[in-house]
Amino acid sequence: MKIFHVPCLEDNYSYLIIDETTKEAAVVDPVEPQKIVDAAKQHGAQLTLVLTTHHHWDHAGGNDKIKQIVPGIKVYGGSLDNVRCCTHQVENGDNISLGAHINILSLHTPCHTKGHISYYVTSKEGEQDPAVFTGDTLFIAGCGKFFEGTAEQMYQSLCVTLGSLPKPTRVYCGHEYTVKNLQFALTVEPNNAKIQQKLSWAQQQRQAGFPTVPSTIDEEMETNPFMRVDLPELQNALLCKLSYADIFASSAGVGWLPCAGGSSPGDKAAKGQLEGLIKDLEKLYLVFWFLWFWPGCVLVYAT
Asked: Facing residues of 120 across strands?
């Protein structure tokens, strides 16, 4: 099994998954179809499957075109997600075969969209670590926006469904957001050495023009605050920051900030960075407070 990145648009990733024996290939989220077809030719592969993680245009928007370019190609997508040009709807637990040696397990990971699917890919011969294609549910050191779901769903998707995969599982996400996500993670856990190290590495990767993807489930458990919300050390860090809660109750958002009224490029840039930080904090608080107040939660927080 070979996996290749195909950078698309501004910061998207599509992926080619190739069975080395048969040279059959699947593509994840082919938003720029011609790039995908060219990449498949470069690797001597025949495209047979499209794996669509969710219905947003920057993931499913190329489905119609790739069906025109590659007649007979099968397009998979979540049964709850109204995926563009879908020929085969999948539900949680459905299996798809690619070539002779690759199995693809569909995992329902809702919240970003209600029918979002992550694809867990294994080699039937088990010669290498598995991979999971998480679209816009799990990012490296982050998670997707809650467009169509709840904090409970995001917690279940990240910490239960994806968090239960084998730790060496490689994580291939839909966007190159890693540096920004790790910068945010460091504001939550400034003394986390794993986050510090990975941020330094990610910055070097991007400066050299290389991707920061894949990560692994193990690395995400160590560095991704959204997969660490049930840890006492992160809960302590969040509780220390709760003085910011009034920010989220205010429709003015960041209007209180010193830079908010400024019109210089520096003021606007600072305001944009702080707005992003606040949005990430709000998202993390939602997951945290779900865990805190969820009646079925067995965790006990000790002060």
From this structure: 105, 132
**Spatial separation of the C-alpha atoms in residues 27 and 40, rounded to whole Å:** 9
Active-site annotation holds for 11? no
Residue among 19, 81, 136, 280 flagged as catalytic: 136
List all residues 6 or more positions away from 87 whose beta carbon is below 8 Å from its beta carbon.
74, 75, 76
Strand ranges inside 200-287, DSSP E: 215-216
Is 112 an active-site residue?
yes
pTM over 0.90: no
Residue 108 designated active-site: no
Q: Report mean pLDDT in 10-residue bins for the chain, 303 residues.
A: 96 97 97 97 98 97 97 97 96 96 97 97 82 97 90 90 97 96 90 97 97 98 91 74 39 34 50 58 62 40 24
178-188 helix and 193-207 helix, angle to the nearest 10 degrees: 160
